[in-house]
Specification:
Alpha-Beta Plaits; 448 residues; Aminopeptidase; six-stranded mixed β-sheet; 2 domains; ArgE/DapE_CS (chains A, B); homodimer; alpha/beta; 12 helices; metal ion binding (chains A, B); four-stranded antiparallel β-sheet
Chain lengths: 448, 448
């Protein structure tokens, strides 16, 4: 720790500048679901890379926001890849924000704004680490490649193609994934994996137009069709009822959960009632299905008496290693058909597998050990987060170990209103990233 | 029929004026669900009554649009009550209308506009009948009372109170209810009753705020709660699963259905699959439950990964004679509680019983016989319509026979986009109403 005093001092002295870097990115409303503001935000990321000392290049994609690639070459025979994304979730319901989502604001030691935790605060922190190392040492003792995409929140549609095309250019020895946070006990959480994702929209089409609801006695109602079909997909205790859904599930890494409890993850209050109650295992290691939205017929004030023209649901399946999203999608279609619901239209909006890195990898050790130094607290290492992301492009396509950590905390309200990070966590996160870069080469060779 | 030549000629010659009366009312966007444009439309109805020769008075109600009452006194010892409403359903989805809903337009022999069939065309037709009788005979040979309310589409919240308060003033020997239509075979349909209504909103509240959907594995999702709860309320074949729901159901009048088929009612294409297949009986005589709308979470384009903050459904129960809406509401709450869903909030938006008049009453005979003369076709008399309305205030509170007929047709798209009536039906409807007024006294005394 003592060896880092100068570096840490430098970071503390420059924290306003680094926070401002985060704010510059947050002020861009880069909502990938609406395909808005992406190009402008990509340019802002490139500018920031340039300010921090990386050489940026912007790569347009056909079906997504551009990818921004930053590189910094050093003398070292070791290369660290950083993965982030500059796109964000929609900010609605906007009326629930205390200050506007795209007007970054610091109050009570917190930086508020859509993307502060997911994921723009992390882009800024990583570039700040580069700036600090250059400021203190005059160099970064590892080759850096920073890949910042613009489609993560909508399933990273162009990422796999880009990584396949640029495989040589992207090669590295290890990767830091986009996010992470400090739990209620103050411990930084280090993730060794993520869940995969199958996001589908189901639509029941009725007669195609609204009909007076007095016909409800004898006419198929698409809202009832949808309700009935959804009810066959999941049991009240959360179990997915699709045949074969759990066949390939891999529970390895469960032993890492022994010293943890669900409370460490600051769960919302209304937990599912399950027999057995292994909720932490369920959260981190089991696949699940969730309704993100329901839409049908009249939703305004008061009453309107109609049979809706159509009814639709948005569902996300969070899948785990060895589950193939295409296979799950096929099983879902088969399930609906077998249960008499093949009139429902199914549209796949996102589809990608899970990813995992071994706790014995040098990346796992490097990130955990440096977290201890940066935060002054023992980190918590978990086999997989509950959330999803296209980490498989790193672990499976590039074939390198990948670990996730970042500047959020348990109260960050990721994807919700008043998303925020704590300034102190942000500063610790900058220190952490600087230590990862500083020690990368040594850990990589320790493991050989 | 010959005796009516002069009267019918008069009506034909004045049809442009009478259509214009309908258009004057349609141009008011009197949407009771939004509580908008009601007072203005009530004034327009009063003006039209005055133009037609009735003495109007406007009665403000606390919880609904004003009631407009029109009277015309004759020498006869017989009084006919006319019930109508000037409020309409919301016009959304507005983008599905060929011409704007509140800009009445005649094209291809049809008058388009929200309220043309339900119920403003009928107000105009009844006043036109008065105008024609005064024009040809110089008098209307029956006392008239015309009650036009402004809250029918939201469950007539003030009507029962008004009728109770004004019981003496409203007393009559028989009543014509608001609506009716010609079926695909051209037969005017005469209704001897309506279903009742229990309209409820069910809401499942989650944690009260959106949560990242990665928590979906272990956190209660209000959308799933709602889907599960709704699924316990109704079987896929339409049967209502609430205990005791069918206890009090009265199937009398079924014999009137013998010569009819569902096709006469121009059903939408996607009928429920039911064993037994007595769909016509189900439509007209059985109670049912319908989903009017579902609302939860993210409904925009693309994907958003959240556990919704809340989920709600709008349901209408169409009930039949002897079913008490308060009792059904109690049974529904009990049902939800018994099935483990007492966390769902239930709000009653409309609640009133069904109504029926005997096929042997003088009103049933009068309306059927005069329909034959006005339309030149045998009418179809049915024990109850599939739709609902507060007819009980006439049959149960005032205690007089009540029959429904009107100027719509099978393609009127009531409550839907491009609502319309055919000009020829409108003219025949005016004739029909004039004949009802002309023959009322005679039929009333025939039945004594």
């Amino acid at each position: 720790m003592e060896g880092y005093v100068e570096l840490f001092d430098y970071i503390e002295r420059n924290k306003s500048k680094y926070l401002d870097w985060a704010a510059r990115l947050i002020s861009h409303p880069s909502v990938s679901a609406h395909r808005s503001g992406l190009k402008e935000c990509a340019e802002a990321v490139a500018e920031l890379m340039d300010d921090a000392g990386l050489r940026p290049s912007v790569h347009g994609l056909e079906n997504s926001g551009p990818v921004v690639l930053g590189t910094l070459n050093s003398e070292a025979h070791a290369t660290l890849l950083l993965y982030n994304h500059y796109d964000v979730q929609p900010a609605d319901p906007v009326e629930k924000w205390t200050t506007p989502p795209f007007s970054p604001t610091v109050r009570n030691g917190k930086l508020y704004g859509r993307g502060s935790a997911d994921n723009k605060g992390n882009i800024a922190a990583r570039l700040a680490a580069v700036d600090a190392l250059l400021g203190v040492l005059g160099e970064v003792p590892v080759n850096l490649k920073m890949l910042v995409e613009g489609g993560e929140e909508v399933g990273s549609p162009g990422l796999e193609g880009f990584v396949n095309r640029e495989r040589d250019r992207l090669f590295a020895d290890g990767c830091i994934w986009e996010y992470g946070y400090r739990n209620r006990r103050g411990a930084p959480v280090v993730y060794l994996g993520v869940k995969g994702m199958l996001y589908v929209e189901l639509e029941a089409a009725g007669s195609g137009k609204e009909v007076h609801s007095s016909w409800g006695a004898v006419v198929e109602n698409p809202a009832w069709r949808l309700v009935q079909a959804l009810n066959t997909v999941r049991a009240p205790d959360g179990t997915v009822l699709i045949e074969g859904f759990y066949y390939d599930v891999d529970y390895s890494g469960e032993e890492l959960l022994d010293n943890l409890s669900l409370e460490d993850f600051d769960p919302p209050s209304n937990l599912l009632q399950r027999r057995g109650g292994k909720l932490l295992r369920t959260l981190l290691l089991e696949p699940t299905v969730n309704i993100n939205g329901l839409s049908s017929g009249y939703q305004g004030p008061g009453s309107k008496t109609i049979i809706p023209a159509t009814a639709s649901a948005k569902l996300d399946f969070r899948i785990v290693p060895r589950q193939d999203p295409a296979e799950i999608s096929r099983r879902l279609a088969e399930h609906l058909s077998k249960n008499g619901y093949d009139d429902l239209r199914m549209r796949v909006l996102q589809s990608y597998p899970a990813a995992r890195t071994s706790p014995d990898s040098f990346m796992a050790k490097l990130v955990a050990d440096t977290a201890r130094d940066a935060y002054g607290v023992d980190p918590v290492v978990i086999p997989s987060g509950a959330a999803s992301g296209p980490m498989y492009v790193i672990t499976d396509i590039l074939g390198i170990p990948c670990v996730s950590t970042g500047v959020g905390y348990h109260g960050s309200s990721v994807h919700g209103p008043d998303e925020n990070i704590r300034v102190d966590d942000f500063v610790a996160g900058v220190k952490h990233m600087a230590l990862v870069m500083l020690n990368f080469h040594r850990y990589m060779h320790l493991s050989e």
